Batch of 2 targets.
Target 1
Amino acid sequence: MIERYSRDIMKELWSEQTRYERWLDVEILAVAAWEELGQIPKGTSHKLREKAHVDARRVDEFEARYHHDMLAFISAVGENLDAEEAQYIHFGLTSTDVVDTALASLITQSLDQILSDLDQLRLAVRRRALDNRRVPVVGRTHGIHAEPTSHGLKWALWWLELGRDRDRLARARETMAVMKLSGAVGNYANLPPAIEQYVGEHLGLKPSPLSTQVLQRDRHAEVITSLAILGGTLDKMATEIRLSQRTEVGELEEPFARGQRGSSAMPHKKNPVTCEKVSGLVRLLRGYVVPALEDMTLWYERDISHSSVERVMVPDATTLADYLLTEMTQIVEGLTIHSDRMEHNLNMTGGLVFSGRVLLALVQGGMTRDQAYDLVQSHAMAAYNDPSRSFRDRLSTDPKVTQIMSAEQLGTLFDVTPYLNEVDAIYHRIGLDEN
């Protein structure tokens, strides 16, 4: 991922230097495991920890000659060691034993960071949900005014969905927290399972129950698809904020920093550019799903068609997820909520948003549903076409309405309170109480 959309923590995690250092960790742990079995002289792994190091630039130089990254890595490490010590690097292993184990370790580490980011975002969203639980806002379906609702319920909905995103990512992390040191075709021909068990315990990974030369790529696909679904939630949030910042709506406003400028030509502009950036970058995140699914199919015990894809896909997807979560957290924490504008928009149609309650009241008063619907719709459409006379006023002078209810009874149907009555119960049901 380019610098612009990368945080330092992920840049370092996915650097070439970190990758080779993680390979070296696997190699030295394998030597220590061989020592435990009495197959390598005692103290060898200790010497390696003290002396062995790897320089990514040196690996690149060897790879330009070998056209094989693992052999380049072994040579780069070995030139810093005595011949006796160097001979035990990569002892009994195949390349992918090291590569897949290290990759699993790095992926789980990146997911730990992403889960932490997600927790911070959920906390910010939770605060917004609690602060706005009694704030009325017009609900919209098909982009058109529907009925009043609680603005807090929007945040509560996002809080719940982000929770499901977290559950998916936690499951994906568990699926990915495996390793393999089982040899060229996965049958432990050149090293016993005890080596794998030892290395896994020290890396915090479980040995895969069965592997070929590689870990099976459904595990990696689960990680990528879970990240893409998380991206969908972030895009949903960003899109609603963008829509609500429109001049004609004006209910929400993403942070606008001191000294920030919105347009090179129009000084008045305050554009939702950060939300637009989130929506745009999520397209990239979704784009990795198909390559991840296609990586599942490899020839026989292994081919290398997945490798080049993963060198781009895995660092980019996790780096993007980390970046997007932190960006969205900043948006949520700095968002301006214009409750006065919400009230204005709720009232701008002269009470049309209460048509459903009027319909039900007329049915309860003795009208058939079709009769009541036609009557309410006729007055609603007339108010649409001529807003100089309100929907409520038109109803109050219709004899078919006045013979069923008084003006006072009609007035109670234009109260927003009933639309908020069950909000506390909903919050309690989903576990979003104050305490």
Target 2
Amino acid sequence: MVSGSLLFIDFETACTGPREWDLCHTDSAVAETYQGSFSEAALDQARLVVSAMTSALCWEGIDRGPDMRFHAEHHLAQVRTALT
């Protein structure tokens, strides 16, 4: 915490952009406790984009480990559910 507020440092997805992009890489409980303003709709869309990216990366590296298929299918299901 910095001056009583959360500070996100995520070097994997470091960029200057909306808070929703930072929050979408965290657990839902983090967004619930975040004290700054953000759009729930934009957060939902950002989480959908991350699921699409994660699914594609897992399918591309399906041979990297036994859990890749599970994660690929899980995130693809998230995208499909959101689009129906």
